[in-house]
Amino acid sequence: MGGGGHRGEQLGSGETSSCKQYTWDEVQKHNRRGDQWVVIERKVYNVTEWTKRHPGGRRVLAHYAGEDATEAFIAFHPDQRFVRKYMKPLLVGELASSEPSQDHGKNVALVEDFETLRKQLEAQGLFRTSPLFFILYLGHILLLEGLSLALLWTFGNGWIITALISVILATAQAQAGWLQHDFGHLSVFKNSTWDHIMHKFVIGHLKGASANWWNHRHFQHHAKPNVISKDPDVNMINILVLGNILPVEYGVKKVKNMPYNHQHKYFFLIGPPLLIPLYFNLHILQTMYLQRDWVDFAWYLSFYVRYLPCYGPYYGILGSLVLLTFVRFLESHWFVWVTQMNHIPMDIDHDKNDDWLSMQLKATCNIEQSPFNDWFSGHLNFQIEHHLFPMMPRHNYSRAAPHVRKLCEKYGVVYQVKGLWESWCDIVTSLKKSGELWLDAYLHK
């Protein structure tokens, strides 16, 4: 999962099946580090060693160890023919004919209807990209970058111009963040090689970050959104406790790394201001060093090779870095409020082994559509459609949404849509509620 290539036929067609058959009980025993099996389209694979080479990172596969990974596999891999050559040597057998295709008592009808919907959307062309959309989108980012330099060259580095440049650059950085997200999900080009190249260009050269770092972190989030210990976006390194379950667990265990009953207040000090300029930057450097990822490091350095000669003559090296830190401080607020408005107020729990549709709808919601909301959030106001179909070009989310809503209504799955301001308020409200749950458990349980 999390690999690349072209969209193709389903994995399994044309493969020679092993004669060994397994029950779900047998498969589910192989769910530990050093012993990991997954099931894809009823075929059983031993992915223990493959996790070390998996393009999406070892943890994504580990999150599905002992489980059926078919829906996640289809969601992340555009070319199953390409992946088959890597999967075939890992094949150890298949499910016994008496075993259901779905594990953990999933609703078979729902799973089949969702797969039918995905095929219908493909037939309608919703997985095809509009090149003009992304050309114009990249163009407006480059235009903002150019505008900031033009202002500096024309008017100098006075305080007013510097403030204006900071806002313009923060806007360019935020929009580049949404664009790298598109390339990272292989949702732009027919040939995913170009997605990978453009991903490194945008996140590395335009933003000064790492594509592999983003892939390994973000695919975990999509594979198991809002699942405690599996989604890194809800693993707040003991600074915040989210949802209704984790706060109580911390309270019962008398864990008090922070005054969690005040987290809805200190969130404004350590969340939006510091995530990108401090935590992300340190984590990116640490990851590139530990993984010896010199290709991404070269792309990372290319950002500074471009940035410092442009701004250094006006602000000096130190002043340019201070300006960049302030830009990332502004961008960080933008990023945090947009990315968390769909998830923090939603259900956060341990893995319930839900089907793909139910799992994603529990963990995310949509924000009302408008031209501004679409642009401001990089179409992440359609977070539901994005999570269900991560390889779908974002300009098609609005066309897919009515079909998704109809399927949700059929099975009683809640399809939630909020206003932008309401969703931001819900972040703070949910943090306050989680803090109160922690305090009650800490004091009384």
Write the layout of secondary structure elements.
Layout: E1 21-22, H1 24-28, E2 31-32, E3 35-40, E4 43-46, H2 58-62, E5 67-68, H3 70-76, H4 80-87, E6 91-95, H5 108-123, H6 131-155, H7 159-184, H8 192-206, H9 211-223, H10 246-252, H11 263-270, H12 275-290, H13 294-340, H14 356-363, E7 366-367, H15 371-376, H16 383-388, H17 397-411, E8 417-418, H18 420-444
Parallel strand pairs: 1-6, 3-5, 7-8
Antiparallel strand pairs: 2-3, 3-4, 4-6
Helix pairs in contact: 5-17, 6-7, 7-8, 7-13, 8-13, 10-18, 11-18, 12-13
Description of the structure:
The protein has 445 residues and is mainly α. It has two domains: 1-105, Cytochrome b5-like heme/steroid binding domain (Flavocytochrome B2, Chain A, domain 1, Roll), CATH 3.10.120.10; 107-445, no CATH class. Helices cover 58% and strands 6% of the residues. The chain is built from 18 helices and eight strands. It has helices spanning 24-28, 58-62, 70-76, 80-87, 108-123, 131-155, 159-184, 192-206, 211-223, 246-252, 263-270, 275-290, 294-340, 356-363, 371-376, 383-388, 397-411, 420-444; strands at 21-22, 31-32, 35-40, 43-46, 67-68, 91-95, 366-367, 417-418. Strands 1, 2, 3, 4, 5 and 6 form a six-stranded mixed sheet that branches. α6 runs antiparallel to α7 (159-184). The longest helix is centred in the last third of the chain and has 47 residues, at 294-340. It starts with 20 loop residues before the first strand and ends with a helix. Mean pLDDT is 93; it is low at 2-18. Pathway: Lipid metabolism; polyunsaturated fatty acid biosynthesis. Belongs to the fatty acid desaturase type 1 family. GO terms for molecular function: oxidoreductase activity, acting on paired donors, with oxidation of a pair of donors resulting in the reduction of molecular oxygen to two molecules of water. The chain crosses the membrane at residues 132-153, 159-179, 266-291, 311-330. Residues 19-96 form the Cytochrome b5 heme-binding domain.
